[in-house]
Write a structure and sequence with these properties.
The protein is α/β, with parallel strands linked by helices. It contains 14 helices and 14 strands.
Length: 390
């Protein structure tokens, strides 16, 4: 069932990449805890497997499943989302140029600026929702248009089809980090993107128990180039990690429906609170790209952020006082998380750069989980009361 494109998403999430085992009928893929494989003759691996850094049967199942869900032809899995990003950047040479959003996950900004910029790779950061600015930033040496949409943490949404059309006009590749949306809510390859990137740690794994990443493409030559770096650099996930992500994917659709429901209800409630200065959630009519969200995404996702009218200390007090929401980095698990990006996930971005991009020191980011919405609202109610006293 690995590549039956006629099946609905929910069916492929459960079955893609795996048929019950022919030896014993196992409905779940085995965890192949092996580093090496018997070969039938020198340089003639049995079934294509020779060493688990290069390929592993459990990883193969996950890769085929991800390719199916993103409507791609090939997927490659990595030990983290940043390892996947690293493989993309490994294709570049000194003098190459990347146009990227100016509202990026802090770890992405860090690998761009503090790792690859040292090797002569240049980066230009713009508001990618401004398509004229995006096109103006392209130069002959540009290799990638790198998009997060929705962005982390400000949840800006870029028109993928329009951005990809601009990139193709200039002969550039479009990369979309689809971590926040997941393939259930948004499929960038269908909109013209060349590469989809995921932190599988987040919604696809979904249970805060695994760290992994992935790239999905349609072009075989591009897949082969990326697979070379996957193997040569060695940032690959272990088989148990792959198994855990596969387990999470089986419930992705039902989990995302609940994430969306809870996030929508909570965002609407927060907008009505007098202490809250603004709420950013793509599902709200107040979101600047709300019309695009309705056109480009199935639904708005499970992430939201907001600012209080008070001080940064009040934002810190809110996040620290939550009881159902856990104060922690990461996102996309079944449990609700809260954080202050300026001092946590985005602390690697210089303060003046963060503020210029609209990331206020007191911004609060929430990954809205699967708990009962009344308990989430009650938790926010008591946390707002505590913040008012800070």
């Amino acid at each position: 069932m690995s590549q039956d494109s006629t099946q609905r998403f929910e069916t492929r999430a459960i079955h893609a990449g795996w048929e019950p085992d022919e030896h014993c009928g196992s409905v779940m893929p085995p965890v192949y805890l092996t580093s090496t494989y018997k070969q039938d003759a020198p340089a003639k691996p049995r079934g294509g497997y020779e060493y688990s850094r290069t390929s592993n049967p459990t990883r193969t199942v996950l890769q085929e499943c991800l390719a199916s869900l993103e409507n791609g032809s090939h997927a490659l899995c990595f030990s983290s989302g940043l390892a996947a990003t690293n493989a993309l950047l490994d294709r570049l040479v000194p003098g190459d140029h990347v146009v990227a959003g100016n509202d990026l996950y802090g770890g992405t900004y860090r690998i761009f600026q503090r790792v690859f910029a040292r090797y002569g790779i240049r980066f230009t950061y713009i508001d990618t929702t401004d398509l004229a600015a995006l096109e103006a930033a392209i130069e002959p040496a540009t290799k990638y248009i790198y998009l997060e949409t929705p962005t982390n943490p400000l949840l800006r949404v870029t028109d993928i089809a329009a951005a990809a059309a601009i990139a193709k006009k200039h002969g550039k590749l479009t990369i979309v980090d689809n971590t926040f949306a997941t393939p259930y809510l948004q499929r960038p390859l269908d909109l013209g993107a060349d590469v989809v990137l995921h932190s599988l740690t987040k919604y696809l794994g979904g249970h805060s128990d695994v760290v992994a990443g992935a790239l999905v493409v349609k072009d075989e030559k591009l897949r082969d180039e990326l697979a070379f770096f996957q193997n040569a650099v060695g940032g690959t996930p272990g088989p148990l990690d792959c198994f855990l992500v596969l387990r999470g994917i089986k419930t992705l659709a039902v989990r995302m429906d609940r994430h969306v429901h809870n996030a929508t209800q909570l965002a609407q409630w927060l907008e009505r609170q007098p202490q809250v200065a603004r709420v950013v959630y793509p599902g709200l009519a107040s979101h600047p790209q709300h019309a695009l969200v309705k056109r480009q995404m199935r639904a708005a996702g499970g992430m939201l952020c907001f600012e209080l009218k008070g001080t940064v200390a009040q934002a810190d007090a809110f996040a620290s006082t939550c009881k159902v929401f856990t104060l922690a980095e990461s996102l996309g698990g079944v449990e609700s998380l809260v954080e202050v990006p300026a001092s946590m996930t985005h602390a690697s971005i210089p303060a003046e750069t963060r503020r210029a991009q609209g990331l206020a020191d007191g911004l609060v980011r929430m990954s809205v989980g699967l708990e009962h919405i009344d308990d989430l609202v009650a938790d926010c109610t008591q946390a707002l009361a505590a913040a008012a006293q800070a």
